From TrEMBL:
Gene this chain is encoded by: rplQ
Keyword field contains Iron: no
UniProt key word Ribonucleoprotein: yes
Coiled coil region boundaries: none
Compositional bias per record (Basic residues), positions renumbered to this chain: 127-138
Lineage: Bacteria, Pseudomonadati, Bacteroidota, Flavobacteriia, Flavobacteriales
InterPro entries from the UniProt entry: Ribosomal_bL17, Ribosomal_bL17_CS, Ribosomal_bL17_sf
Assembly, per entry: Part of the 50S ribosomal subunit. Contacts protein L32.
Single GO cellular component term: ribosome
Protein name: Large ribosomal subunit protein bL17
Native source organism of the sequence: Wenyingzhuangia gilva
Family: Belongs to the bacterial ribosomal protein bL17 family.
Region (Disordered): 124-157
NCBIfam families: L17
Entry keyword set: Ribonucleoprotein, Ribosomal protein
Record's signal peptide: none
Length: 157
């Protein structure tokens, strides 16, 4: 029975589960987006969001605490230097899980896990699409051409 068990054990022993989540968190921090199963994605979200919250305040203590979870100094550096700057004003919800369907081999439900601030499609503060105009260039340029013709006529007279 699983009375009082608050998280998914993912069918692994504690050391294996912690190592797997640490590796997945490092991959997420490095690549900003990874594909995995839905169960692992939900477990990863619970694992990585407190770590990202810790990274908002860049102190030696917080760096050591985050390193104790991730065990990868390059991921810790990336987290504190780049990701923490982007999520500084966000009060939580740093990770988005998008379901992708089922895997070909074993029909496992798959999901894409991504950092919210690094998606250009969903992020309203990201790069905006250029608006296209529906009027033709000739009509838009016609008043300027007419004004230029009048100014040349006045200077010739």
């Amino acid at each position: 029975m699983r009375h009082g068990k608050k998280f998914n054990h993912l069918g692994r022993q504690t050391a294996h589960r912690n190592a797997m989540l640490a590796n997945m968190a490092c991959s997420l921090i490095e690549h900003k987006r990874i594909n995995t199963t839905v169960a692992k994605a939900k477990a990863l979200r619970m694992y990585v969001e407190p770590i990202i919250t810790k990274s908002k305040e860049d102190t030696t203590h917080n760096r050591r605490v985050v390193f104790s979870y991730l065990k990868n100094k390059y991921a810790v550096t990336e987290l504190f230097q780049q990701i923490a700057v982007k999520v500084a004003d966000r009060p939580g919800g740093y990770v988005r899980i998008i379901k992708l369907g089922n895997r070909q081999g074993d029909n496992a439900s798959m999901a894409m896990v991504e950092l919210v601030d690094y998606n250009e499609i969903y992020n309203p503060n990201g790069a905006k699409k250029k608006k296209t105009t529906r009027r033709s260039k000739k009509k838009a340029d016609a008043p300027q051409v007419k004004a230029e013709a009048e100014s040349t006529e006045t200077t010739e007279e």
